[in-house]
Amino acid sequence: MTRVFNFSAGPAMLPEPVLEKAREEMLDWNGTGMSVMEMSHRGKAFMSIAEAAERDLRTLMEIPDNYKVLFLQGGASAQFAMVPMNLLRGKKRVDYVNTGAWSKKAIEEARKYADVNVAASSAADGFNSVPAFETWQRSEDAAYLHYTPNETIGGVEFPWIPETGDVPLVADMSSTILSRPVDVSRFGLIYAGAQKNIGPAGLTIVIVREDLIGETLAGTPTMFDYKVHADNDSMYNTPPTYGWYLAGLVFQWLLGLGGLKAMAQINERKARKLYDAIDGSDFYANPVDPACRSWMNVPFTLANPDLDGEFLKEAAALGLTTLKGHRSVGGMRASIYNAMPEAGVSALVDFMADFEQRKG
Ligand code: PMP
């Protein structure tokens, strides 16, 4: 068996020890005689798995007690609608910051429910930076401000957290959650699809300050009401049990590594290695303002795009897969989430240098 270094933006690599543990427990979880997939979500065994996962996530992110942690379905995309449906709370206007493809999707969906003010945008420089906070034109009466701390396609990451005072700050952390410590108390709501840094696709995590929930827009489906999920410990209906279990194994793995501070050091090192390789060459380029380059998603282009196909083919033959850039951007994209080993980044950098030497 050979496992590859998979640079996919998501679903992405999972830590090997997590997959091994899951394999070990596949047929018989802890003497129950069944796999986690076959358990009642209301039974004692699964309840213990669910509680441990939440407890470990709370420890990892230092989530304050006045925040609910929800284990939901529908992906981050469902949150694009759930956020306005739950957080408008009688208001009409919301502020959004547009830093690229995922911000735009969130904005388009919010427009169905609210009067959206785009408070800031980095469109003018091709979405290669983060708009300076002093330039943001925020509304007086915004129900919340939404932004995307890490744009998965553009590879742009906020190096700071906006200060919005009494206006709840909402963040789509799909591609940055658990990559470094964050001060959860600065946020009203954080959401993330699981398939990058949390676990398998099918699970979405929402962390929400409890005073913000309970007043939904008229017509909100029951399944879209955070309060319903909070009051039922995310078991109003059948939750994505296996994803929840695997997320718990990932949280255990992170705790074993030393938590998010330790993970951040590794991530910074991995990202620096790759950006240094790109910047140190005339053959590769990354257009993003160095102050806000993503640690997780690193897009880069080759000086001669006619070589893209060859680059991808040779990389794949070496076990470096899924490096093709997003169709809207072209070139390459290396997603180097928590589970990408440092050896994977080293192998990529070595291949890039070798390819340049032969073809550049
Ligand atoms: N937001 C961001 C930042 C993403 O990267 C993605 C997925 N790539 C989404 C939202 C959409 O997530 P999902 O497919 O889970 O709905």
From TrEMBL:
Gene Ontology CC terms, in alphabetical order: cytoplasm
- Any one Pfam family here would be Aminotran_5
Any note on cofactor binding? Binds 1 pyridoxal phosphate per subunit.
Oligomeric state and interaction partners are given as: Homodimer.
What biological processes does GO assign it?
Answer: L-serine biosynthetic process; pyridoxine biosynthetic process
Task: Tell me which residues bind pyridoxal 5'-phosphate.
Answer: A76, S77, W102, T152, D172, Q195, N237, T238
Function per UniProt: Catalyzes the reversible conversion of 3-phosphohydroxypyruvate to phosphoserine and of 3-hydroxy-2-oxo-4-phosphonooxybutanoate to phosphohydroxythreonine.
What metabolic or biological pathway is this protein involved in?
A: Amino-acid biosynthesis; L-serine biosynthesis; L-serine from 3-phospho-D-glycerate: step 2/3; Cofactor biosynthesis; pyridoxine 5'-phosphate biosynthesis; pyridoxine 5'-phosphate from D-erythrose 4-phosphate: step 3/5
Q: Mind telling me which PROSITE patterns this protein's record contains? A: AA_TRANSFER_CLASS_5
Aminotransferase class V domain ranges (all copies): 4-348
Kindly list the cofactors needed: pyridoxal 5'-phosphate
Q: Which residues carry this modification: N6-(pyridoxal phosphate)lysine?
A: K196
Question: Which reaction does this enzyme catalyse, per its entry?
Answer: O-phospho-L-serine + 2-oxoglutarate = 3-phosphooxypyruvate + L-glutamate; 4-(phosphooxy)-L-threonine + 2-oxoglutarate = (R)-3-hydroxy-2-oxo-4-phosphooxybutanoate + L-glutamate
Going by the UniProt record, its keywords in alphabetical order are: Amino-acid biosynthesis, Aminotransferase, Cytoplasm, Pyridoxal phosphate, Pyridoxine biosynthesis, Serine biosynthesis, Transferase
Q: What is this protein called?
A: Phosphoserine aminotransferase
Molecular function terms, GO-annotated: O-phospho-L-serine:2-oxoglutarate aminotransferase activity; pyridoxal phosphate binding
Q: Where in the cell is it found?
A: Cytoplasm
- For the keyword Amino-acid biosynthesis, the answer is yes
Residue positions annotated to bind L-glutamate are: R42
The signal peptide stretch is none
Q: What is its EC number?
A: 2.6.1.52
- The keyword Cytoplasm belongs to this UniProt entry's keyword annotation: yes
Q: Which family does the UniProt entry place this protein in?
A: Belongs to the class-V pyridoxal-phosphate-dependent aminotransferase family. SerC subfamily.
